[in-house]
């Protein structure tokens, strides 16, 4: 049976497909409409074992569900690692060809798309996090209005509806006061939505067995447990815990040069090779923030981690 490697460059209206055979020869190119029926019709017109790839993006989750049952292999690849695509001339056809060649050579880094049973929880967590970010942004804008007129506003009373008139009277300019009132109105409309998203997220997270296990970890409450389940989905996606730390942005990245030398005719490893250390920047930022917040909460309250961080700071 012949093997075909298909690279898809997906856009809102059209998708450019390049088909490469097992020898790396381009056998077909096509531009089809970005619709499920059209894409499946294109795949059904090809014979042999089909291996398909496309880059992670807005359409990736939808296309994963549409194409997965109809192909032998589907890889949603990480565009940040496709340096080869950035070299030379670039257009839709060239990028689809390069994707097909990278797939054939096995040089793509897949992005995990699985655990369909967690899709509802993932969307609820995303809604809660988005509304939380929007509320934080509005609070910062409100404080910026007062700080712009030299009015200290470190207290949370500036957001309290019972103290709102008192704070608005401090703004002497009518236009500035009107602006603050509009920001308060936006915040009042956003807070109930955020609370509703929080309730739905927690209710859905209780249906998963891992929720009870995660909450047994100190300083991992209901909200953090729900976020961990949604972001990690399953621990089996990581081969070892090293991959988990790298995905969380907590792995140490080491760059070195001149690792070996010849001494007396024998090859030896250099002990004092120049190294550059730093945390892995190819990470999930939400997961890194979650682990950091857990560690910060533990360091501020009595317990083993609090004692460890205190002793470590003393030694430093």
Count every beta strand, where a strand is a DSSP E run of 2 or more residues.
9
The CATH architecture of the largest domain is 2-Layer Sandwich
Give the radius of gyration: 26 Å
What is the CATH top level name of the largest domain?
Alpha Beta
**Strand order in the largest sheet:** 3-2-1-4-5
List the secondary-structure elements in sequence, H or E. Answer: EEEHEHEHHHHHHHEEEEHH
Beta content: 15-25%
Describe the structure.
By secondary structure, this protein is α/β, with parallel strands linked by helices. It has three domains: 3-105, YqgF/RNase H-like domain (Nucleotidyltransferase, domain 5, 2-Layer Sandwich), CATH 3.30.420; 117-214, no CATH class; 238-315, no CATH class. The chain is built from eleven helices and nine strands. It has helices at 36-44, 60-67, 92-105, 119-147, 164-168, 174-205, 209-214, 222-232, 241-247, 285-300, 304-315, and strands at residues 3-10, 14-21, 26-33, 49-55, 73-77, 252-256, 260-263, 266-269, 275-279. Strand 2 and strand 3 (26-33) form a beta hairpin. It starts with a strand and ends with a helix. The model has no long low-confidence stretch (mean pLDDT 89).
């Amino acid at each position: 049976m012949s093997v075909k490697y298909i690279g898809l460059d997906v856009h809102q209206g059209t998708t450019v497909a390049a088909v490469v055979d097992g020898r790396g020869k381009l056998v077909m190119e096509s531009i089809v409409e970005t619709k499920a029926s059209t894409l499946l019709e294109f795949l059904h017109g090809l014979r042999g074992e089909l291996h398909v790839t496309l880059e992670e993006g807005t359409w990736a989750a939808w296309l994963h569900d549409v194409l997965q049952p109809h192909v032998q292999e589907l890889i949603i690849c990480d565009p940040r690692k496709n340096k080869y695509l950035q070299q030379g001339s670039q257009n839709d056809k060239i990028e689809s060809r390069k994707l097909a060649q990278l797939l054939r050579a096995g040089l793509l880094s897949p992005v995990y798309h699985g655990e369909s049973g967690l899709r509802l929880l993932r969307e609820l967590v995303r809604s809660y996090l988005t509304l939380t970010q929007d509320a934080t942004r509005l609070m910062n804008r409100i404080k910026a209005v007062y700080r712009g007129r030299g009015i200290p506003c470190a207290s949370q009373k500036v957001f309290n509806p019972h103290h709102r008139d008192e704070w608005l009277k401090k703004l002497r300019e009518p236009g500035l006061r009107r602006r603050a009132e509009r920001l308060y109105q936006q915040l009042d409309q956003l807070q109930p939505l955020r609370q509703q998203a929080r309730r739905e997220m927690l209710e859905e997270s209780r249906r998963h067995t891992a929720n009870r296990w995660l909450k047994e970890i100190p300083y991992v409450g209901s909200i953090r447990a729900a976020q961990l389940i949604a972001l990690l989905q399953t621990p089996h996606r990581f081969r070892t815990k090293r991959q988990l730390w790298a995905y969380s942005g907590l792995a140490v990245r080491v760059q070195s040069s001149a690792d070996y030398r010849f001494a007396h005719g024998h090859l030896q490893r250099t002990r004092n090779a120049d190294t550059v250390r730093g945390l892995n920047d190819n990470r999930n930022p939400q997961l890194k923030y979650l682990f950091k917040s857990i560690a910060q909460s533990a360091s501020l309250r009595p317990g083993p981690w609090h004692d460890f961080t205190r002793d470590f700071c003393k030694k430093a």
